[in-house]
Amino acid sequence: MTFSAMVANASDGAIVLSREEVGDDFLGDGEVTIEVHYSSANYKDALAITPRGGVVRQYPIVPGIDLAGEVVASDDEAFAPGDQVIAHGYELGVSRNGGFAELARVPADWVVKLDGLSTRDAAAIGTAGFTAALSVRALLDNGLTPDDGAVLVTGATGGVGGIAIDILGGLGFEVIASTGKTDADDLLAELGADEVIGRLPEDPEAKPRPLTSARWAGAVDSVGGASLAYILSAIGYGGVVAASGLTGGPGVPTTVMPFILRAVSLLGIDSVNLPIEHRREIWAQLGGELRPRHLSALTDVAPITDAEQVLRSIQDGTHRGRTVFAVEF
Ligand SMILES: NC(=O)c1ccc[n+]([C@@H]2O[C@H](COP(=O)([O-])OP(=O)(O)OC[C@H]3O[C@@H](n4cnc5c(N)ncnc54)[C@H](OP(=O)(O)O)[C@@H]3O)[C@@H](O)[C@H]2O)c1
């Protein structure tokens, strides 16, 4: 049996993504074989085709940390042919072949059966939206309510940021969107942002202060770096910050002052190795009370053969929102 896949190959210090016909040896071990309908473009997929991107050790690999589609064969009684499912994270697209292919085989305990979401909407949410939902869930579980005050969302035009704005707006929070793009106000307002501000700190040259005037009750941050340090200094008493990303860098030049003088909580968010039971609960909520309301405003659909071009736009910072890949060759 052969099937089509977009395969990343490394040579001469460059990584090229191109269509290939591959065989059974490209399917990993596992109980569930999935005909992939949709994948999507995530920051990590862009890193997978970046030389020294740090997420893939061995090429060739089929990228795609998200895959949504239909079960075509299963050795596990929890799944049957015809089931509509999503799988994301774990080793997909980084140390085993991922979603940029017509077929994938995965362990049953990586698979989530979809309830109330189409495979296309599930891919539009994908790892980014799942991480946004995990972040919002973490704020709620730590007691944050709309009465506490405004919530900041950074990387606002990105996948995590955009869907976080959408979910928070739907829950009745006042949302402040921080973006580096000057022409995104209309999109961000449509998603649910009450105010749009620039990247943080507003003055990157100013000497960082351990604490500054309280501006927000909580934050969903996928930027990290100096931005996260500034946010921690400007969160109000008892506030909560969910941190998931590092587009602004991995180092966070902060002090203990926000924690010991304002009782601020910094909550770590990981979508990759989250145990499957918790993962299935969050997906059920994404089809229900945490369902993003404006996915279509945030999402483009592109053929999988455009994957390299789309991932390059993430690398150069011009991409916005979510791109779903239709896996048809
Ligand atoms: N912890 C997890 O499990 C998990 C899961 C998913 C993603 N992540 C991480 O979260 C981050 C965002 O992922 P994503 O999928 O949302 O990526 P994305 O769609 O590419 O969005 C990233 C956004 O970050 C902002 N940005 C880009 N470069 C920046 C810079 N130098 N400084 C500050 N902001 C910058 C941009 O928003 P604006 O132009 O609007 O500012 C961009 O749209 C990545 O670091 C990713 O690795 C982590």
Entry keywords:
single chain; Acryloyl-CoA reductase; oxidoreductase; 26% helix; binds NADP nicotinamide-adenine-dinucleotide phosphate; 329 residues; seven-stranded mixed β-sheet; alpha/beta; six-stranded parallel β-sheet; ADH-like_N; 9 helices; globular
Question: Strands, helices and their partners?
Answer:
Layout: E1 2-11, E2 14-23, E3 32-40, H1 43-48, E4 66-74, E5 84-88, E6 103-106, E7 112-113, H2 119-141, E8 151-153, H3 159-170, E9 175-178, H4 185-191, E10 195-197, E11 216-221, H5 225-233, E12 235-243, H6 257-261, E13 265-268, H7 276-286, H8 295-298, E14 299-303, H9 307-315, E15 322-326
Parallel strand pairs: 8-9, 8-11, 9-10, 11-12, 12-13, 14-15
Antiparallel strand pairs: 1-2, 3-4, 3-6, 3-15, 4-5, 5-7
Helix pairs in contact: 2-3, 2-7
Bound molecules: NADP nicotinamide-adenine-dinucleotide phosphate.
NADP nicotinamide-adenine-dinucleotide phosphate (NAP) binds at residues 42-44, 127-128, 131, 155-161, 179-181, 199, 222-223, 244-248, 269-272, 314, 317, 319-320.
Account of the protein in words:
The chain has 329 residues and is of the alpha/beta class. Helix content is 26%, strand content 27%. The protein contains nine helices and 15 strands. The protein has helices spanning 43-48, 119-141, 159-170, 185-191, 225-233, 257-261, 276-286, 295-298, 307-315, and strands spanning 2-11, 14-23, 32-40, 66-74, 84-88, 103-106, 112-113, 151-153, 175-178, 195-197, 216-221, 235-243, 265-268, 299-303, 322-326. Strands 3, 4, 5, 6, 7, 14 and 15 form a seven-stranded mixed sheet that branches. Helix 2 (119-141) crosses helix 3 (159-170) and helix 2 crosses helix 7. The longest helix is centred in the middle third of the chain and has 23 residues, at 119-141. The radius of gyration is 20 Å and the shape is globular. Bound molecules: NADP nicotinamide-adenine-dinucleotide phosphate. NADP nicotinamide-adenine-dinucleotide phosphate binds next to helix 1, helix 2 and helix 3.
